[in-house]
Amino acid sequence: MSDRVRVSILGATGSVGASALDVASTQCEGAPAFEVVAVTANTRVDELARAAIKARAKVAVIADEAGYGALKSALAGSGIEAAAGGNALIEAAGRDADVVVAGIVGIAGLPTTLAAIRQGANVALANKESMVCAGALLRAEAREAGANLLPIDSEHNAIFQVLDRPERVDKLILTASGGPFRSASMSEMASATPEQACAHPNWSMGAKISVDSATMMNKGLELIEAAYLFDVPESRIEVLIHPQSIIHSLVAYDDGSVLAQLGLPDMRTPISYAMSWPSRMPLPGRERLDLAKIGRLDFSPPDNQRFPALRLARSAVSEGGGAPIVLNGANEVAVAAFLQRRIGFLTISEVAGQVLEVFLNGHSGRPDPSTFEEVYDLDRWARQRTLEQLRLAA
Ligand code: NAD
Ligand code: MG
Question: Is residue 51 within 8 Å of residue 16, measured between CB atoms?
């Protein structure tokens, strides 16, 4: 790539957002010159303003409308446009850019992921929940707009890197570290605190995905994400526990070959791959993978008893009819309640399973949602139902 690459970073104050900003600031031989168009955040005005100024962005958008005044004054004299609110977020995501990094967490990222796709950009997708809730709809939108969906999630990025013959795929193998409770007992998990759940052994990430990794709902959501992204049925997607997080995922072909992508656990690698696709850009000055130093790589099957989230995800994606939306919405509400110390750790998967069951009992055989409105309606239903089940107020 020789010309400047215009990039927008949605969720710029988050863990993925910070890594994407770091990648965008890379200056070396062989790296594209990135020009940052839009940066967005939910509520943290000061951090957003700092990021916007550092990256010399054109526009900074805060989702929380109450933050507009503070953002405008923090950006005064910088020449950077300030905006606030949901519509401004969608407008920013749809601005002309070559790459849009979808780094917002939760289904809250769906409207902007959609706007980025409709703009026809390369969409560097971290926001797995939008794929889980509206995978088929987003792929259809991408086809229509000529947009490319480039996964940032390390497992999907790994598969994307080694998937050269989709028609010859036997199975996809998603690796999972097993999270902080890989070898914890049920009673240890029952009393786990948010701090313990967020202390991931290999990756430093936002709170929601950290809790998802601890329940392994993250792997469940990733299984659904992979099914939609790569158009492979759930029955041909395997999950493999690999505590070192060096092999990021594998593709098994029908000739017996298994291709893997390896690397140190550093999100800047998959993010840079998506941001520079179809090229590959250098990331200088980073520690390199040294397998001799690591010495060994371990593998084992997942424990479906202690981590029921995987089974729930398999059942949601194979039932279809919007079940993944319900599972995702219930999980989002339960994770938030756990982070607020209103429910215990094991209750997260338990309530997600109960709400999914209620939905499947009443809606078996239902077609997949055909509009985004239906997706949002089901999400609202799942959230309400989860709060009721937990006897919590909204
Ligand atoms: P994070 O909590 O660190 O950051 C989330 C970002 O989204 C922040 O900038 C926040 O301001 C913004 N945001 C949150 N709620 C919003 C709302 N309602 N409206 C607008 N903006 C909102 O999260 P993260 O760890 O960076 O994860 C982001 C996404 O990437 C998630 O979907 C996650 O599953 C996925 N992902 C993250 C990692 C990782 O290493 N962190 C790896 C793979 C996938
Ligand atoms: Mg992942």
Answer: no
Report which of 315, 331, 105 is spatially closest to residue 224, judged by C-alpha positions: 315
Strand partners, 169: 253
CA of 71 to the centre of ligand 2 (A): 32
Query: Which residue ranges have their beta carbon within 6 Å of ligand 1?
Result: 11-17, 41-42, 63, 103-105, 108, 126-129, 153, 203, 205-206, 208-209, 267
Cis, peptide link before residue 278, omega less than 30° from 0: yes
pLDDT score of 300 more than 80: yes
pLDDT band at 365 (very low <50, low <70, confident <90, very high): confident
Nearest CA to ligand 1 atom 40: 205
- Spatial CB neighbours of 141, under 8 Å, sequence gap ≥ 6: 114, 117, 118, 147
Domains (range + CATH), the chain = 4-151 (3.40.50.720)
Q: Do residues 285 and 163 make contact, with C-beta atoms less than 8 angstroms apart?
A: no
Residue 2 has pLDDT above 50, yes or no: no
Mean pLDDT of 77-96: 98
| Cis peptide bond prior to 111, omega within 30° of 0 | no
